[in-house]
Write a structure and sequence with these properties.
By secondary structure, the chain is of the alpha/beta class. Among the domains are: about 230 residues, P-loop containing nucleotide triphosphate hydrolases (Rossmann fold, 3-Layer(aba) Sandwich); about 190 residues, Rossmann fold (3-Layer(aba) Sandwich). It catalyses: ATP + H2O = ADP + phosphate + H(+). One of its GO terms (cellular component) is nucleus. Its main location: nucleus.
Length: about 600
């Protein structure tokens, strides 16, 4: 595909010579955009915005690498919105046409970008219209939205390619193309879709490639869409100064001890604030939620089996502080290649240390292929990248990711917008793997090698993972309660939990509303069907007896390395015996289940 040939080559070194900009007014943006920026309480542009917006306003292609939460979305949206406003004012009534296309890898990110556009165009009236066709709506509704010729379309590559192939989406008037989270686009299986879109683009399209890392996939997209692009690569000082720091810790633990430590951490409130817990698969997601519910700890699940509208609702409720814990799966982990010095470890993981016997190697390859297939429940689902979880205090890797790159993107959910955060990772040593089958997960077999790769990767970035130890003598006192809870959370209980959630989704589904109106008996049977029993919660498990706290010295349970102690212990005790009568003493606030509240809203 031919592109502009008169561009000049740019680099981040040229950007270093730019004049200092301390506020958004220096960009000479439209007053309506400035009014929106003021309402959003944005004062000082971030480093990526300061570097990218000026060349973007000049019409140059942009390739920018910046970590999550650094303001990449505004860096490409503000120039595009500015150009559209100028174009509409300079050209009197013109034929409506879609001039901007924003491609993102996941539906969650598409919804987020659409909301950001709505925020920036709040004072533009009907001058700028944007639609999100990645939403879970029918093809006919999507076609009508596209044929209405909005100024900007937000989509995943697969949806855009489908509408282009059916001649609904016309790319000939396109002027601006954005590929957000570019390093994920190809790893999510959109290579063919991108080839289709690239072949249909007209000459002179201004392209924005935004990415947290510059991988081979990004270079491939750069060759396909850009010519002499302005390249922004922040140095280490800029990155560290842009956002808050992430304190990173890891804990060596057995498979069942993971559950014990998690119980102690959250029941004794050793972590203050909101947390995201990453697990290996959907079954484990529900198992962990049911386990925590045994102790009165409310958590919500987020995985690819949930409808996209439900997932978006869960993220929205989390950001509104309705609940504090999300248990998330990361099925669409980044499966790309590791750094060169990590490939050797990857080969060992695959069984190359046994060169004389090919059978174990083949078995492991088959297992890896099987795991890869299991991850493809929803190729447009992703929570470790792009989704804006607000005010996350801790990212807890209950199960380690399978690559160091996935780890980097997971911990990017915390320490956003200049705030500090913590990442805590459990790993299972080789000698402890498979010792407790009920709580075992296949990916834990390679935890040691993955952890070493993570340490090397973070070391190159100037970060350090520190070991963290619990005083296991005190923690062991809680073990009998963990055993009781694990016995209650059976495979049948996990299956019932998934069935119950599916039933709730059917009852709340807007798509099935017409079917239930035409077939009221179906709705009657569904509502009066036998209640699905999940797990019986024992009341006494919700409180912590005084004797288990070791004279109230819960803080002694954790022993950090050096002075950096990541956990803060709540000051209140549970039921000291000073109150009498049923229902007295400390009351535990009930958290609303976002999936149940979702039934009141349209999907």
């Amino acid at each position: 595909m031919k592109r502009k040939l008169d561009d000049t080559d740019w680099s981040s070194k040229d950007a270093a010579a730019k004049s200092a900009r301390t506020n958004f007014s220096s960009f000479s943006l439209d007053p309506r955009l400035m009014q929106a920026i003021a309402k959003l309480d944005y004062h000082t542009p971030t480093s990526v915005q300061t570097s990218v917006i000026p060349p973007a306003l000049e019409g140059k292609d942009v390739l920018a690498r910046a970590k999550t939460g650094s303001g990449k979305t505004a860096a490409y949206l503000l120039p595009i919105l500015q150009h559209i406003l100028i174009s509409k004012e300079s050209n009197a009534p013109a034929t409506a046409a879609t001039t901007g296309l924003i491609l993102v890898p996941t539906r969650e990110l598409a919804d987020q970008v659409h909301k950001v556009i709505e925020g920036y165009t709040e004072f533009c009236g009907k001058q700028i219209r944007a639609v999100n066709i990645a939403r879970n709506i029918s093809d006919s509704i999507q076609q009508s939205l596209i044929l209405d010729h909005p100024d900007i379309i937000i989509s995943t590559p697969s949806r855009a390619a489908i509408h282009f192939n059916t001649e609904t989406l016309d790319l000939s008037p396109l002027k601006y193309l954005v590929i957000d989270e570019a390093d994920l686009i190809l790893s999510y299986g959109h290579e063919n879709d991108m080839q289709v879109i690239a072949g249909a683009l007209p000459k002179g399209v201004q392209t924005f490639l935004m990415s947290a890392t510059l991988t081979d996939d990004v270079e491939q997209l750069k060759d396909l869409f850009c010519r002499h692009a302005f390249v922004y690569k922040p140095d280490q000082k800029e990155e560290q100064g842009e956002g808050g720091s992430v304190s990173q810790f890891y804990i060596s633990t057995g498979e069942d001890t993971k559950f014990l430590l998690l119980y102690v951490i959250f029941k004794l409130k050793l972590i203050k604030g909101k947390s995201i817990i990453f697990v290996a698969d959907v079954d484990r997601c529900y198992r962990l939620r049911l386990f925590l519910e045994q102790f009165g700890i409310k958590a919500c699940v987020l995985n690819s089996e949930l409808p996209v509208n439900s997932r978006l609702h869960i993220v929205e409720e989390f950001n509104k502080n309705v609940y504090e814990i999300i248990i998330a799966t990361d099925e669409n982990e980044i499966m790309g290649e590791e750094d060169d010095d990590e490939n050797a470890d990857a080969d060992e993981v695959e069984g190359n240390d046994d060169k004389d016997n090919d059978q174990p190697k083949n078995k492991k390859k088959k297992r890896k292929s099987k795991e890869s297939k299991l991850r493809k429940r929803d190729t447009e689902y992703g929570v470790s990248r792009g989704v804006d979880f607000q005010n996350v205090t801790c990212v807890l890797n209950f199960d380690l990711p399978i690559t160091s790159k996935s780890y980097m993107h997971r911990i990017g959910r915390t320490a956003r917008a200049g705030k500090s955060g913590m990442a805590l990772s459990f790993y299972v040593p080789k000698e402890l793997y498979g010792k407790h089958r009920p709580t075992s997960v296949a990916s834990a077999e390679n935890d040691e090698k993955v952890l070493e790769r993570i340490k090397r990767q973070q070391g190159k970035m100037g970060n350090e993972l520190k070991p963290y130890n619990f005083d296991m003598k005190q923690v062991e006192a809680f073990k009998y309660r963990m055993d009781d809870a694990l016995r209650a959370v059976t495979k049948v209980a996990v299956q019932n939990a998934r069935m119950k959630e599916l039933k709730q989704e059917l009852l709340a589904s807007e798509k099935l509303k017409r079917h239930f109106e035409e077939n009221p008996e179906d709705l009657k049977h569904l509502r009066h069907d036998r209640e699905i029993k999940v797990v019986r919660v024992q009341a006494h498990m919700k409180r912590v007896p005084e004797y288990l706290l070791g004279k109230g010295q819960a803080a002694n349970m954790v022993q950090g390395s050096g002075k950096a102690v990541p956990f803060k212990v709540g000051g209140r005790r549970v039921n000291r015996g000073k109150t009498k009568g049923k229902g007295k003493g400390r009351t535990v606030g009930k958290k609303k289940d976002p999936l149940k509240s979702f039934g009141k809203s349209k999907r």
